[in-house]
Please model this.
Amino acid sequence: MSEKTRVFCHCHVYYPELWPQLRGALRNLAAAGCRLRVALTTVVPLPAVEEECRREFPDTEATVVPNRGYDILPFFRVWEDVRPGDFDLVLKLHTKRDCPEPCMHVNGFSGRGPRLRDMLLEFLATPENAQMSLRRFDDPRVGMVGNGRLWIDYDRDRIEWDRRFIGDELRRFGMTTRERAFLSGTMFLCRPRVLERFRGRIDCERLSVRNDHAISVIHCYEMLFGCAVAEAGLRFCDYAGRPAAELHGGKLRMLWFGLLYKLCRIRNVLTPRRRRGI
Model:
């Protein structure tokens, strides 16, 4: 990409204490010579975050949105206002809380505590990583860039999501791709054409789930981003171009996390609800 790469950046800040990490990612992208337009969404007014964002990135628009649809619905709401052709790349970021579950993993890499968030933001965690991420788009076949260790094959890993719902949504968006791979956590850089299938077709009511339940619908849309990459005739690329062998933790680690998951399920069944703080 050129030094004048225009990037539309959506930052959904639900946890304001985690904003500095997103700010650091934006700084690294700006340091790479990109021109950023930031769409900041929050569920309550956050004057300090808004002021800091505008001070560092003057072309910022801040919006308070309903506490619905996690980070996915706010993203689609702001994306609808973006004019095709105005930007070379689209960046999607959001604050991701720590995960307390010891069995949490992606491709055999632990996601417990802040680890998943750190992996998600790794592709912009340093100026060097930001430069590497941008260079991946020099290949016209690349449509999305992020941390390849979070790229998941939906069918291979037998993910138990609502396949009928996903199939219905694919038909509604006019997608015929058979690919079922996606980037877990939905923090990425992509070409705008990847997202054009969604423009004007998002059912906001369907996505307006409360942010304390019904997350399965949101997870289904997480997968649809990956389908959109394939539908555009493009592919996902790890920000550092690492070989496939480095993007999976190995069978032994997968077995270990599978065992941890079963133990956690047993613990949850045997532990009285009042002791679990529910």
Q: What stands out?
A: Confidence is low (pLDDT under 50) at residues 274-278. The CA atoms of residues 268 and 275 lie 10 Å apart.
